[in-house]
Amino acid sequence: MAALSSQFGDLVEIKKQLTVIIALCRERGLMHSVKWASELAFALDPLPMNELPPPPPFTEEDAQDLDAYSLAKSFFDLKEYDRAAYFLRGCRSQKAYFLYMYSRYLSGEKKKDDETVDSLGPLEKGQVKNESLRELRVELSKKHKARELDGFGLYLYGVVLRKLDLLKEAIDVFVEATHCLPLHWGAWLELCNLVENKEMLKSMSFPDTWMKDFFLAHIYTEMQMIEEALQKYQSLINVGFSKSTYIISQIAVAYHNIRDIDKALSMFNELREQDPYRIENMDTFSNLLYVRTMKPELSYLAHNLCDIDKYRVETCCVIGNYYSLRSQHEKAALYFQRALKLNPRCLGAWTLMGHEYMEMKNTSAAIQAYRHAIEVNKRDYRAWYGLGQTYEILKMPFYCLYYYRRAHQLRPNDSRMLVALGECYEKLNQLVEATKCYWRAYSVGDVERMALVKLAKLHEQLNESDQAAQCYVIYIKEIFECGELMEQVELSTAFRYLGQYYFKNKQYDDASICAQRCCNYNDAREEGKSLLRQISQVRGQGETSSSDLSLPFIFGPLSAKNTPVRRMSPLNLSSVTP
Amino acid sequence: MASVHESLYFNPMMTNGVVHANVFGVKDWVTPYKITVLMLLDEMTISTSITLLDRRRLNKLILPLLQSPDMTLSQLIKTVEDSCPQLAYTVHLRLQLMADGELKDMEHFFDMLPSPFNETESEAHKTSVVGLFMRHMVLAYNKLSFSQVYKLYTALQQYYQSYERKDSPAAEPAEDTDMELTNTEELGGKMEKEELDLEPSDDEVSTRGPLSQKQAEYFLAQQAYLLKNDENKALDPAALQKELNNMLKFNPDFAEAHYLSYLNSMRVQDIFNSTDSLLHYFDRLILPGGDSKSNGDEGCGRSLRYAALNLAALHCRFGHYQQAELALQEAIRIAQESNDHVCLQHCLSWLYLLEQMKGSDSTLTEHAVKMAVHFCLPYLASLGIQSLVQQGAVGGKTANKLMDALKDTDLLHWKHSLSELIDISIAQKTAIWRMYGKSTMALQQAQVLLSMNSLEPVNLGVQQNNSEAFAVALCHLSELHAEQGLFAAASEILKHLRERFPPHSQHAKLWMLCDQKIQFDRAMNDGKYHMADSLVVGIAALSKTEGLYRKALVLKARNQTTEAYKVLQRLLLYCEKIKGTEMTIRVMLSLAELHWSSSCHAVALPLLLRSLAVSREYHLQYLASECILHLAFSQLMLGIPEQALNILHMAIEPILAHGALLDKGRAMLLVAKCQIVTASSEPSKQQKTQALEVAVQNLEEAGTYFTKVDCKERVRDIYYLQARLYHSLGKTAERNKCAMLFRQHNQELPSQGVPLITRL
Lengths: 578, 760
Fold this sequence. Notes:
The complex is a heterodimer.
Chain A: H1 11-28, H2 31-43, H3 60-77, H4 81-88, H5 94-117, H6 132-145, H7 151-163, H8 167-180, H9 185-194, H10 198-203, H11 210-222, H12 226-241, H13 245-257, H14 261-274, H15 282-291, H16 295-308, H17 313-325, H18 329-342, H19 347-359, H20 363-376, H21 381-393, H22 397-410, H23 415-427, H24 431-443, H25 451-461, H26 465-482, H27 488-504, H28 508-518, H29 525-544, H30 546-562, H31 568-576
Helix pairs in contact in A: 1-2, 3-4, 3-5, 4-5, 5-7, 6-7, 7-8, 8-9, 9-11, 11-12, 12-13, 13-14, 14-15, 15-16, 15-17, 16-17, 17-18, 17-19, 18-19, 19-20, 19-21, 20-21, 21-22, 22-23, 23-24, 24-25, 25-26, 26-27, 26-31, 27-28, 27-29, 28-29, 29-30
Chain B: H1 32-46, H2 52-67, H3 73-83, H4 85-100, H5 103-112, H6 115-118, H7 129-143, H8 146-167, H9 171-181, H10 184-206, H11 213-229, H12 237-250, H13 255-267, H14 271-291, H15 293-317, H16 321-337, H17 341-358, H18 366-374, H19 378-394, H20 399-416, H21 419-436, H22 439-450, H23 468-483, H24 487-500, H25 508-526, H26 529-542, H27 544-557, H28 561-578, H29 581-597, H30 601-617, H31 621-637, H32 641-658, H33 661-680, H34 685-708, H35 712-729, H36 732-748
Helix pairs in contact in B: 1-2, 1-4, 3-4, 4-8, 11-13, 12-13, 13-14, 14-15, 15-16, 15-17, 16-17, 18-19, 19-20, 19-21, 20-21, 21-22, 21-23, 22-23, 23-24, 23-25, 25-26, 26-27, 27-28, 27-29, 28-29, 29-30, 29-31, 30-31, 31-32, 31-33, 32-33, 33-34, 34-35, 35-36
């Protein structure tokens, strides 16, 4: 995975390529690709004067179309697409042709958007179509067949196909576009949205350039294959892109996705330092600050973003998060609503609004918000999870199973869903299913460290004392390894149970250690003391009666087999810590 | 959130699907189709030359036109033409003028439109359906913005042009063939044209334009009604789903569509989609409750309870009984917490149903019925009574009590016009009469159900006849016909069942079982055991006990006595466990027959006496007569024919009155046999001859019965007996005739199986 393509050796060459592509994209009005490439170019060292790449070759056709092109480009930049297309209609050069088609496409899109607001009725809304798409497709496919399209033309053709929902064809065309013009980030980005799974990705062939690594890293992040993505990005940084804000932001998002909050926070702080006026991804940053309840930081971020641009979706989300943290849920909901007005397809805002309504105990509105989020993106696990939580609050454990299951399907390795599922099964008195869920939650890496305790308690209920003891032992071990002593209540119950368990199994040494530990906690102190008394009593008797002494020998191998051998280690460890 | 494409940044207001339903607060708006309908209405008021008959037809047409989804112009004109060709032409002309004209023509049209209301003697009264429609339209038109008016006009032009283009389809293919001869460049042009043309026509088929809120509601109501009452007339599942998806794409807030989608998915047994749609529906439904603070909580909670209940019903339909139980418990808990007795009552009846489906015998108490009456839930109350009646019937309650209870529920049904339950009640009566062995009464009840007019208002020309009750009644009917040897009629009924309840539908299993049973019986009669054997598998798939029983019958007929005995013993134990009285008696009779075939007639007697006692205890008259028949045969074989004749008198009457043809034949044959045996002990020769002649007549009768049900073996044996009797009577001509017939039959049939003498 880490092996990057060999072209990274020559950063100067990459820089040159970037400079060229920036110019090309700018000429064609592909501003987002320009932005991406420039961001990357900025991260590399500046080129000396004599190294600067020559301007792209200027053909006879270009010269002929120059005036028409310049005029049209100015119209294009001013968003007068029809006007631009009109003056470009006779042009023959590739550049002018692309701009011609692109303005026609954008004009159609713009009209579509305008029309949506102005359509005849609500039910007609979804039927508003970009009328020019079909014409564009016919013209472009003709050119495509005749192999007259350059990389940009192919890209546009792909976009048109995608808009017409011809996804398979679109993927083929985009792949062709990447082969034809590997430096154009737009085509790669489109592919990121079209490729659905790993198998699909494997079956495709891409040009072997350094762009491919950026693409793979990006798509791994999208597909939640965070490990691979992080590896890729790390190696990109090692090669020399350490200053790229794009990579930093992507890494931060990746850390956020695997809930590695500290690392994500540090990445975002670095990003803010390098690019203080950046608004993109700041909603993710605010989510992190929210989770860590870092009020002052969040407040600072919110005010800062508000100064930069009030009317951005991200800004609204950050402010919403801020209010939510201050428990002003009405205001928070208001800001999320504003974000949705700015972009109704903003999925995060729907989900966050759902959370706010939940806080306000307005379950029906919360359900609505979550449902909206699901409509925008069926794969939004947070919305499914939120729906499940809502129904759980409404005391419908069976009903919410379905929602949790959906969420679990989308994030099979997220312990939170599994714990939630387990809790529901527990409420439905389906203890065997519940134990399965908790065990799975523990094995995929439990975030909240509750699965084991719950599992142990379940085993207690099922009278499986060996398993219960085992769970408690692992739990105690994990807690002390982390050095966190927050969940004292659970720790004391664990020690209390273990003490009784060892006592029953006549392992008096272990039992007395546990009992002593119990005495450290207020709620278990009395029991600890009484257990200690019992132990000393039994020991006193044990010396007199020989029949009792023989029992441990019978139980010894049995218990040693059932409880883990390393059971002593956590206790030894614990005696070191205060 | 990485941005997808540059164009997304164009207009932050871009909405795609995620819009609230009524942004404009209108339920209806102007479309070209509606303009055409308006024209039609206008013409109707203006023109005076329409005949009365035409006018009546047109008036009948108006409501469907107003409610249905938008039609294409050609469809519309065709519909109008059927009623009044002249008017259709005028409307067409007016539309053409408007479409070929200018925008001002349309504006003028709407300016002129309100005028009919101003006149007092106008036909379209302000508050009439037509008047409301017109006013809606005028209002919606006036609300349109400048660009929207122009859009409407271009839409109108397109609407008209697509009709024109369709009107002259002959021209286009000719053009196409011309093009193919030309060079490649034009080929591209052709493709372009094709592609441009192709899509609208495709759209036409699937979506007839966007629906307005009202049209959508009407569409949903109609389809749901059809699904409930006559599934075959509804759109087929795929088409309906497509339509619904379309509707939901444009308006995701339209919750009812989700419910219909749930019903539709149930039709094709798609658990994933149906669960998804059901939950989605209830998620959406919760909103209206949240609007008003005062009853918001109540409304929300209410839908929650029913959501859980519906989920239980869903799992129940798919046979996930454990899940269903959990969901039901949840519904019950929530209902109890909020003191919703009505919901609780519903839960209770579901609980009972669930227990029954799981096979455990729970008893619905009379108390539950009383509670249902108390909470004014007549539906549940009489459903409860019907369940109690069913329990009673199986448990051997006396008929008069059961019929009395059913009469009471019938009173309740007619009072509340619960047509569905009336159907069930009649079907239940059919089944009960059949169980008692009164085939005539059963036949009559089945006919009553089939020829009864549904109580529900006759809507869309659909009668409510899709229910389980109908399936049950029809199955009984076909079995009754088959019993009487009317196989053509029976298969006709089955054909009808197959059409009405296609194999994938919920109640299809009923007729499938019935069909196979009839085929099995025919094959057994005909002596084609291999065919019967092949049917056993099919029967066993649908009903375990029935399958086992039939398997034993085949084994018995093939003289595989030991295997048959094993199967029957197993079945007997099982039936006694699940308290299947009827089957127990049948099995005991078959066991007795097995004993005969090994000539242990004395051993069979206690079995037969036991089965007689049981069938009398449960009032199963027909089975009782069958037992007597068997008893009499045993006695005959044990050499006490007088005694046999004596008890036969008890059985012969009900069998001749209600029995199947085969049983009638068997009874008559047995009588004849007994008579022959007793005749030999008659003292005088004359008496002997008389007795034998009576026996011959009885044999004759039995023979006709057997011929009707294609029982060739038995017919052959009858000829043999007849020939012997004629011989001893000295009637040579008759004897020879019978002997010849016997020979004919004997050549056709392989002589196998048990000889008639040792068989009932």
